[in-house]
Write a structure and sequence with these properties.
The structure is a single chain. The protein is an alpha/beta fold and 976 residues long. The protein has 28 helices and 31 strands. The strands form 5 sheets. The chain has an 18-stranded mixed β-sheet, sandwiched between helices. Strands 2-3-4-1-5 form a 5-stranded parallel β-sheet, with helices on both faces. Helix 22 links the parallel strand 10 (528-532) and strand 11. The longest helix has 42 residues, at 99-140. Residues 179-342 form the NB-ARC domain. Residues 950-976 are annotated as: Disordered.
Length: 976
């Protein structure tokens, strides 16, 4: 992808060229003596950039080429910093005062501009000298000829590092029996038709070994068989030659590819064959290979790949034949590890067992990692300190002296295959500590701030950045940890072994500097700096490694001091997780003019000088320790006109919020009696807003209550017709309760303060649901679970994009289910009745309703619902609350109808025991168990009991009632 502003391969060269072009435009009226120098810089750097782009795609550079590339990249960083400072000095101050004061200010600005022009002229002369030296070195070393020579020899093949896996002895294989039997069952199913099965997984998980085991076990059943390796840059002719020689015999290598394809098809057309195509990287390669494999009866094809989308496309349309290989479990990992070093676990010296287990866990079940590390340890002294050093090296870049070339070689194949923009994004993950669970949204915001993401067909940068992340997940280089109901990754993690690889590459290219307690000699220019000071000492000596031109700084832990933030004039990204309020407040964050991303996950106060951060795009103040209300937003924050994301910490909206027109995400905002009504009105002006999360806390009978309500209602109507995709209205975390809508759809809130046990009323008297009625509405998430609706308006059916809905209804009726059941994209529904309905009339959910729903949470009405056959065909998880006292009269425990939910896996029942006898509870629970056993795919059944309140509410309890955990029942017949 061309045009990326910043990358690991070319540094900030593209950014520099873009800024030089801007300076030459009409916007900046440069002095005559300055303009030629700017044009010279642009022309020379454009030529250098062309060579940089070529070098970026080459792995085997000689030292001279590497040195030249590094010098150019570092020079581009310096030029970029220089231009940024110059542009800042040239900018006029907004809202200049009038009169004499304004005239005086204008004169001062002119003088500053003249000074800036003199400075830039001197700097241009110095830069021209540096550029001339680098250009002369380029031609003196004849780098262009070197690059051409490397390009012409880049097709030379080396020994395939996967060969040992193909010819491993069966006795040395561990944890392979289960996957082998699974694949054989999938392939040998007796069907009289062609079948293609894919094995997908990260490099090093043992795909080739597994495929070869299946090949040996199953191959004898076919008329002919072949095993071919495709590789990253496949040679189709050689692949066809290999296929034909294995199937038919020796092949004349002078034959053309068309002849080879025809010969293969003709020979295989009436034969039952088994072919393994190992390590397919692209679907296009498979399209070529399958030309030689005719579709005939009972033939089988097994392929391996690192990419999920390739696996699915190769198996299309039968996507159920994709087998994702899993890491080894703990017993198999230990078996493999100890067998290779000691022969068995029992022979491991007792003083090495604990450290061995820790090393095994760090390998994460990756066979390649286990084999490599165990091979290394096998030749090391059986000394605990030596082994501890190896353990500590995993995850933060293994010692270069360690013999890990084989492992890195295989993992490097995946890295080398990435386009440059994805290499950059992957390398940036080394800005997080090992085993850190990375928030996806925060990561993409940091990529955006660094300039790693390019606009693609007008797409939002966050959406484009997420597509980068999913490509890395698809290539098995990033592991998703928490996945939302819509299938989107919410958090992710980098495997320790992959982290080793990217840390080593990032450090080698001076892209990122990673520092822990092992303080090393400072680099000349530190551009991105990870400082992990958790449980570390001598922190201040680590700060000494920082240089003024650092661009990205991540601090994790609790330092005893803070680095001099204002000295870092080039800083774009600052992420602080840990520290104390005083340290953070005193570090003058407002004095870093280039800052784009600021996240402070610790309570602190922002200075009024925050307005100086003119380029700030993300301000994330969510405290991971949940210290509410300790951070006050300064009034000057509304002057941050470039801000796209403001994530507050239960703070009030400032007046003037409507001026922040670039805002796309606004969360953690408190609306209480001290909030400004005008700020609620101004919300409606934020037409780019995609996500809005409000915490409503207006007390009952407030003098200006209706003004707050009307202001919010008006703003919601405006936002709903713009870009709003996620709307959440909640209450302050230390308050429990519910928001309600009366029969006229007017919103009110009844809350309980869990500290004082006193009741309050918060009425939102005139908020209607009109904001949901826009035909062009793109709302995807609506969370107003405390909001009590007296009936569901039919216009809610227009929310065609809604995937998550959480609401409270005064009384759930058949009409309620009819309207909600027609929402075409709904994946998760939390539906609660305001009061439990004791009627004997059962509501029905039919087969043509809730076609996509995966999670259903029903409270206070579960016993009154009948699930008809074929209802909710994709439902996997259900939460039901049933009153034991009324259950017998309602249905006699005879037919709960949950057996008709064919896809159901997880069942969670809350039995309301209030007013019920022990016998009623036991009978109801037994009936639920009996129905559950009729489900074909259930995994787990959980029971909770809601008991009568006695003296005080238990911690984590329901409103006014204590929750008692009863039991969890797993299904031993189904593997979770």
């Amino acid at each position: 992808m061309e045009g990326i502003m910043v990358s690991a391969a070319t540094g900030v060269m593209n950014s520099v060229l873009a800024k030089l072009t801007t300076l030459l435009g009409e916007e900046y009226k440069l002095q005559k003596r300055v303009k030629p120098g700017i044009k010279y810089l642009k022309d020379e750097l454009s030529s250098m950039n062309a060579l940089l782009e070529k070098l970026a795609n080459m792995d085997n550079l000689d030292q001279q080429a590497k040195d030249w590339r590094n010098q150019v990249r570092e020079m581009a960083y310096d030029i970029d910093d220089c231009i940024d400072q110059y542009i800042l000095q040239l900018q006029d101050e907004p809202n200049k005062p009038a009169g004499f004061k304004g005239f005086f200010r204008k004169m001062v600005v002119k003088v500053k501009k003249l000074g800036a022009c003199r400075d830039i002229y001197q700097q241009i002369q110095e830069l021209k000298t540096r550029i001339d030296e680098v250009s002369q070195r380029r031609y003196r070393y004849k780098l262009d000829a070197v690059v051409d020579a490397i390009s012409s020899t880049s097709r030379v093949e080396t020994i395939d590092p996967r060969l040992p896996a193909r010819y491993a002895e069966p006795s040395s294989l561990v944890g392979i029996d289960g996957p082998t039997e699974e694949l054989i069952k999938l392939l040998d199913d007796g069907k009289q038709s062609m079948k293609i099965v894919s094995i997908v997984g990260l490099g090093g998980l043992g795909k080739t070994t597994l495929a070869n085991r299946v090949y040996e076990r199953l191959g004898q059943q076919f008329d002919c068989k072949a095993f071919v390796s495709v590789s990253q840059k496949p040679d189709a002719k050689k692949i066809f030659q290999s296929l034909l020689s294995q199937i038919k015999g020796p092949v004349d290598e002078t034959r053309e590819m068309d002849w080879l394809i025809h010969e293969l098809r003709d020979f295989l057309k009436d034969k039952r064959y088994f072919v393994v195509t190992d390590d397919i990287w692209r679907h296009e390669a498979w399209n070529v290979i399958k030309c030689a494999l005719p579709e005939n009866t009972c033939s089988r094809i097994l392929l391996t790949t690192r990419k999920v989308d390739v696996a699915k496309r190769c198996c299309h349309p039968d996507r159920d034949t994709v087998c994702e290989i899993r890491p080894l479990n703990e017993p198999d990992s230990e078996d493999l590890f100890f067998r290779r070093i000691f022969g068995s676990k029992d022979q491991c010296p007792i003083h090495l067992k604990d450290v061995s287990v820790e090393i095994i866990k760090k390998c994460g079940g990756l066979p390649l990692a286990l084999i490599t590390i165990s091979s290394l340890l096998a030749v090391k002294p059986k000394n605990k300190d030596e082994w501890l050093n190896i353990r500590n090296s995993i995850g933060m870049g293994l010692d270069k002296k360690c013999d890990i070339d084989e492992m890195k070689r295989i993992l490097s194949l995946s890295y080398s295959d990435l386009p440059n923009h994805l290499k950059t994004c992957l390398l940036y993950l080394s800005m997080y500590p090992e085993d850190y669970e990375i928030n996806v949204q925060q990561l993409v915001r940091r990529w955006r701030a660094e300039g790693f993401i390019k606009v693609n067909c007008g797409r939002n940068l966050m959406d484009e950045g997420e597509s980068y992340l999913y490509e890395l997940i698809n290539r098995s280089l990033i592991q998703p940890v928490v996945i939302g109901i819509d299938g989107r990754a919410m958090t992710c993690r980098v495997h320790d072994i992959v982290l080793d690889l990217i840390v080593s590459k990032a450090v080698e290219d001076n892209f990122i500097t990673v520092v822990d307690s092992n303080v090393s000699e400072s680099q000349e220019n530190v551009r991105r700096f990870l400082l992990d000071v958790r449980d570390k000492e001598n922190v201040m000596s680590m700060f000494s490694l920082l240089t003024p031109n650092v661009r990205s700084l991540g601090i994790f832990g609790y330092p005893t001091g803070m680095p001099p933030i204002p000295d870092f004039h080039a800083l774009r990204v600052l992420n602080i997780e840990g520290g104390n309020k005083k340290l953070i407040t005193s570090c003058n964050i407002g004095k870093v003019p280039q800052l784009r991303y600021l996240r402070i996950a610790v309570p602190a106060h922002l200075p009024e000088q925050i307005e100086e951060l003119k380029f700030l795009e993300t301000l994330d103040l969510c405290d991971i320790f949940n210290h509410l209300g300790l951070m006050n937003l300064p009034a000057s924050i509304v002057k941050l006109h470039q801000l796209k994301c403001l994530s507050a910490n239960c703070e009030r909206l400032p007046d003037g919020i409507g001026n922040m027109k670039a805002l796309e995400e606004l969360s953690g905002i408190l609306v209480d009696e001290e909030s400004s009504v005008n700020s609620l009105h101004e919300l409606g002006r934020l037409t780019k807003l995609r996500r809005l999360c409000l915490i409503w806390s207006i007390p009952d009978k407030h003098d200006h209550e209706s003004m707050y309500v009307d202001a919010l209602a008006l703003s919601l109507r405006k936002l709903s017709s713009s870009n709003l995709m996620d709307l959440r209205i909640g209450v302050k975390p230390h308050i429990t309760g519910r928001i309600s809508l009366d029969s006229q759809q007017n919103l009110y809130l009844r809350i309980t303060d869990t500290k004082t046990r006193s009741w309050k009323q918060c009425n939102l008297a005139h908020i209607s649901l009109d904001f949901l009625s826009s035909p062009s509405h793109i709302l995807q998430q609506l969370h107003i679970a405390p909001c009590c609706l007296h009936g569901i308006p039919e216009r809610m059916a227009s929310l065609a994009s809604l995937t998550n809905l959480s609401i409270l209804v005064h009384q759930v009726t058949q009409e309620t289910l009819q309207i909600l059941g027609d929402l075409p994209a709904l994946l998760a529904l939390e539906l609660q009745s305001d009061e439990a309905d004791d009627t004997t009339e059962r509501l029905s959910i039919y087969s043509n309703k809730f076609g996509c729903l995966k999670i259903l949470d029903l409270k206070n009405l579960a016993i009154g619902v009948m699930f008809h056959e074929g209802a909710m065909p994709k439902l996997e998880t259900i939460f039901l609350r049933i009153k034991a006292h009324s259950a017998q009269s309602a249905c006699g425990y005879q037919d709960l109808t949950i057996r008709n939910l064919s896809a159901l896996k997880y069942l969670n029942f809350t039995i309301d025991c209030r007013g019920a006898t022990d016998e009623e509870v036991e009978v109801l629970q037994a009936a639920i168990k009996d129905e559950t056993t009729l489900l074909p795919n259930w995994y787990a059944l959980r029971f909770s009991r809601l008991q009568e309140e006695e003296d005080m509410v238990s911690e984590g309890s329901e409103e006014g009632h204590a929750m008692e955990q009863e039991e969890d029942i797993p299904n031993s017949n189904n593997e979770h």
